[in-house]
Amino acid sequence: MIGVNIGHHDSSICHFLLEKGQLHKLEIILSERVSRHKNVGGFPLAALRYFQRSAPQDWASLKTEDVVQNCFGEHPKVTEEEMKQKLPDYNVLLEGFRLQKATSLYNPQIGFTPHHLSHAFSVFPVMPFERALIVVSDGAGSEQRAFAPTDREWELVKNQKEGREYFSVYSFEQGVISPLEKFFSKERFLTHRLLRYSESFGSHFEYSAKLIFNNWKQAGKVMGLSAYGKPTEISDVLEYLQSLNVDEFKIYKSKLEFDNQPDESLQRSADVAATLQEYFEKSMMARMQELKQRYPQFENVVLVGGCALNGLFNMKLVHSNLFKQVYVPPFPNDEGIALGCAIKLAFERGDLNFKPTSIEEIHPYYGPIQNAVELHEHRVEEVFKEFKVEKSQNIVELAASLIEKNEIVAWMQGRSEVGPRALGHRSILCRPDIPDIKNHLNNFVKYREKFRPYGGSVLKELAPEYFEVDEAFHSPFMTFCAQVRSSYREKLAGVMHVDGTCRLQTLCEKQNPLYYQLIKKCYESYGLGVVLNTSLNLMDQPIVETLEDAKLFFENSKIKYIIIGSYLIRK
After folding, report:
1. Which domains does the chain have, with CATH numbers?
2. Which spans in 459-511 are helix H?
3. pLDDT digit string (tens) for 141-182?
4. Model pTM?
């Protein structure tokens, strides 16, 4: 089975085999990890080509009826027809690379799954509950006109106004996903700065990201910047956005320009970010309260869509006690869309059985199988021949000793994470108590804007000691921002934002045994069961995928040590 996401951003494919109702060889291939262009959208040509080359037998055995597509906005057939008209070589590429069964232009049996339903089904293989509400909230999904009477959501869609879905609610019961509510909104445009917005929460963050960072795809930065601002209480967010003087927001094209902008300019941006963050938190909480009143039989809730990455709101929802558990899967953003497409097709055919997985065993390591570090360890010495390379019999102890000595260590193991967070397979690690470590990382390692914070990985059993969470709390995929306890604010300064929060990853041993042992060794060495963990990449570049990517990163960063498998490479 294969899912194809022709995304406005984060295009991808997902492939898996089915045997006795179970998934095998599940992998998600993000176009950005292959093309090396961050958040790249469009037809996932690079990802499909990679799959063809790395798994030729699986590609050859794939039947035309085993392919399903999703496309941002329009139906894939409409989008591909437009691409065919606008891109003269589009057909030539599809035919030349023999990709006909992956495209609706050539494959009449290809399936289609709407955007929000794809989000909902992406939870299926990483679901810890037998029943729950699934809430999808993002910038925008499928157009109202993309749905057909044969779609399972048609009764909710047929009388809706023209526009794109932006908020959907589903019930999940023993694997059966049923639509409950759906809302559409039509976008508005401010053409001279290529700005767009609608009623959707996600579009408000995209709008402000375009204003502040000149890139709507960097909406995630807005939450971080909000901690520096003073919010204005608003009741009509569209009126507020329209009231902003767009020309006051200068375009800063580099980290240096952004970091050295006038104080009043930065404050203006931070105030906008704080206003939108506060509006989102209040509005989203009101919606969740209404949902709980309408569907009291559901104890647990699952958040997906781009808005599910808002860790500040997620934590407030936990503290509200509306639901017994609040769960956010490892890839709630569009990186999970191709998976959701394929899962829906498999489940509706009766080829896939559902069984919940303990949250302590769910992991995000579904990157390309052929790029797993263990398959390429024998090449490390050759790829890094310009550097000092040594193989260790106890790489955990060696890594912990370097971290204990205040060294910054790049860490690369196994298959890559899918989702926007580094979670212990493609990470940069160090102690969280190194003085001024955030500024050092932003200025000399990651080359990010100076306001941006870092997250921390903590042993699950120690999380309540350091953070204001209870023993039952889980944040395995860095999607919750918890308050750091006052007694640990100095020691955890490197992973604490100016508002006193930390975007944390709680780690159980079954989720990642090697990474767990590393943090445990650090705890034994210097008394903190927390490491600063950030993604193994430079700003505006995708996370490292291959040995060659790792070498390029190592050459262009000031990090002195990188550990790949059981090898330590030094500058």
Report:
1. 2-128+330-348 (3.30.420.40), 188-280 (no CATH), 370-570 (3.90.870.20)
2. 463-466
3. 999 999 999 999 999 999 988 899 999 999 999 999 999 999
4. 0.96
